[in-house]
Design goal:
433 residues
């Protein structure tokens, strides 16, 4: 155990001491005092790196309603047996009322099963803090966080005449390079260097991502409370479900707000396989408005197409999404989708949608009101964003891939017409036409 100055990173010996102290039932403040740390540091360390282990002794269905459940025909209309006795399908993935048995002790400090006298015999899922594993994850995060003119005047002017007007339209350099690769005789890194040196009519500050973001304030991480709406819908459940059904499309869901919390906002749906995005205008950022959009889609597409398209939905923990039942079930109570939630403060778990939100902010900067928007303007915005070439798609646009993997009825909600590369406009002037 080392006594490092306050504010320094935890070492492997510190983490070994934490694991040993947890096994000895020591409290957070006792551990923190020994390591010259704040108790919140110990709490965050355990929450961040605790490892959930599957049930070891319990081999059956862990649903709390298993003994009294009488549901049947969740996966088929002709199966006569109760679903809890089925050996072909796991009814826990099909039933909207599934709730796992969870130990009440993991919702309060120390949040893990280290030192629990019943850990070897209980049938609940377990969470442990392991020093070596925690240190390995820490080192991996630390490493990943630290991984930023040979042209004639005539050629340079020709390049300037091509690139500068397109940058003024708000087009990313990746899109310009993809659309005009044969006309640009230098690498993309060289283009950035020319912009940095002021050799073009536009400057590097005219590129959307070259402007430095404001530093965000650190927020205190909440305790891992198991809310009802997250039961069997956490991100680890999402990963298990995707592994069980790898052919299903994953749809990322979020909202983009304007200046007024109670005013209009945008609801976005992004299909992971193609990065194709649907945008809907909500009159208010509420659960009822979100449910209304899905009801509209369900009515327009029909049950079969809707289920095949929106089978897996991944969203964040915003208050407008805390009623998953209104999204998952239709008016007759039938399951039509499965909703999962990202971990708190982990927007990178739906990174594709967050990246697409940057394109929206090029046209509607933060602080701008959305009260004057109409669905027609929002659809126009989606057309231009979906017509922007992406490096992640090997130089293709989301429209190109969506035409292959999505039904035409789904494409219609974002406009069927693809915008030509040179006409893509990602500036506020787009919505003033």
């Amino acid at each position: 155990m080392s006594k490092n100055p306050k504010g320094s990173h935890l070492t492997l010996s510190d983490r070994i001491f934490i694991e040993k102290s947890l096994n000895e039932h020591k409290r957070f403040n006792e551990i923190a005092h020994s390591l010259c740390k704040d108790p919140s540091t110990i709490s965050k360390e355990i929450i961040r790196f605790m490892d959930e282990k599957p049930i070891i002794h319990y081999k059956g269905n862990d649903c709390k309603y298993f003994m009294t459940c009488t549901k049947s025909r969740l996966c088929s209309s002709c199966c006569p047996e109760f679903c809890r006795y089925c050996n072909t399908h796991d009814c826990r993935w099909l039933c909207a009322d599934y709730e796992p048995n969870r130990c009440p002790g993991i919702n309060t400090p120390p949040y893990v099963c280290n030192g629990c006298v019943n850990a070897s015999d209980c049938s609940y899922p377990k969470q442990f803090y392991r020093a070596e594993q925690a240190h390995a994850q820490y080192m991996e995060r630390l490493h990943s966080s630290r991984q930023g003119i040979n042209t004639s005047p005539e050629q340079l002017q020709k390049l300037n005449d091509l690139v500068s007007p397109l940058i003024r339209q708000g087009q990313p350099l990746s899109h310009i390079y993809s659309a005009h690769a044969s006309d640009i005789q230098v690498s993309r890194r060289t283009l950035y260097n020319y912009l940095d040196q002021g050799l073009f009519d536009v400057r590097n500050i005219d590129l959307p991502r070259r402007v430095r973001y404001k530093l965000r304030k650190n927020q205190r991480q909440a305790n891992p409370i198991q809310y009802d709406y997250r039961n069997r819908r956490a991100y680890r459940d999402f990963e298990k479900y995707c592994n069980a059904f790898p052919d299903y499309e994953v749809v990322e869901l979020d909202t983009v707000k304007g200046t007024q919390e109670a005013g209009k906002c945008l609801m976005t749906l992004l299909f992971r396989k193609s990065s194709f995005m649907l945008i809907f205008l909500l009159e208010s950022c509420t659960q009822a408005e979100v449910a209304n959009v899905f009801d509209t889609l369900y009515s327009a597409l029909g049950r079969r197409l809707f289920v095949n398209t929106f089978r897996i939905i991944l969203t964040d923990n915003g208050p407008e999404f805390k009623d998953p039942w209104s999204i998952e079930k239709d008016s007759e109570g039938r399951l039509r989708a499965k909703v999962f939630y990202c971990d708190p403060y982990a927007s990178s778990q739906k990174a594709r949608l967050e990246k697409n939100h940057e394109f929206i902010r090029y046209v509607i900067p933060k602080g701008r009101t959305m009260q004057t928007l109409t669905q027609e303007k929002v659809t126009l915005l989606a057309q231009h964003i979906n017509s922007t070439a992406r490096d992640s798609l090997n130089g293709k646009t989301p429209f190109d891939l969506a035409e292959v993997v999505l039904d035409k009825k789904v494409l219609a909600f974002s406009g069927r017409k693809k915008v030509s590369p040179d006409n893509v406009l990602l500036k506020p002037a787009l919505l003033k036409k």
